[in-house]
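Possible regression after last week's pipeline update?

I re-ran a chain I had predicted before the update to compare outputs. Posting the input and the new output here so someone can diff against the archived version. Not blocking, just want to make sure nothing changed silently.
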Amino acid sequence: MKKNKLQQYFPMIRTRDEIIQEIGNNSSLKSQFDALKTERQQEFLDFCSGAKGVRILYDSFFKAIMNPDRDSSRLNAFLSLLLERKVSVVSVLSNESQIMPDTLVIMDIIIRLEDGSITTVEVQRYGYAFPGQRAACYSADMLLRQYKQKRDQASADKRRMNYRSLRPVYTIVLYESSPSEFHAFPQNYIHRFHQTSDTGLEMNLLEEYVFVPLDILKEIVHNNKKIRNQLEAWLAFFCMDEPEWILKLSENYPQFREMYGEIYEMCRNLERVMQMYSKELQELDSNTVQYMIDEMQETINQKDAQLSQKDNEIKEQASQLSEKDRELQAQATKLGEKDKELAAQASQLSQKDAQLSQRDDLIAKLQSQIREMQKHLSEQQ
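New output (post-update):
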């Protein structure tokens, strides 16, 4: 079988047929492979055979390549470019919150830098899972864990806690698919945040944020048809899996050829890669379910709010109708009284009419008698 472009460049990549054959010969591996959906099987075969690149943002691959305990120079180089300052990773901290143990604040990689600053690098495939509120919680957690360490050290040394000894904390979020608000800025693939005053007064409030929408970076690189600098090269390495771009990175930025080589060596161990891949899919499914639950709860909350508003409107309308009813009842009472007055007047008029009718009859009778008398007198004459 003819080798594809990546196989020619990275000879350790095996052919699709070789991979399928090994899967078929390993019952455990085959069972795991068969349990995948068709499109997931295709993806697995594609990145193991070099038809496409590996998704570096898969948590397991990202940590394997960027783990500072193995080679801190990679993370140093990337963070120095991103934070626009020289960075030296000193240690990797526990990624479970010690300050808020009952919460879901669990971070990808938390690092202490040479100057005492703490940084978290958070990889998010889908932006809905990491809104600004969550970033603020991560930042607060890092600040509190630094405070706790400083406070405990001061207590051990029998001295007062000095708040000026606290160093900045950086929350870095890489989005594979960024939230919708980022797409209002299609020319920007880095957004840096820090707290400022409305007067220009400067205070060191410690919390810094960097958000990187990698989907926007991909569009910019595709439109420019080139990678313009080292930072774009790093971000392209994280998110671009087209073979032609992997080859461009490997040729123009040699450090990435070494990293791709490590990844494809890793892919030769199909059982290990399958375990990593299955773990990613489980996490993805879990996040998707949680997102659906969150979306459903938000929909329910919105519906509840709308129903509550409708109830208030109905109550207001009922109150207005009740007031209207009272007004109409008062008017009806007045009309009833008026009807009684008119009925009384009609009765009086009827009596007057009867009296007038009797008078007219009497007058007519008298007039008849007068005519008879006049006639009788005329005859006598």
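Follow-up from reviewer: compared with the archived run. The longest helix spans residues 270-380. Marking as no regression found.
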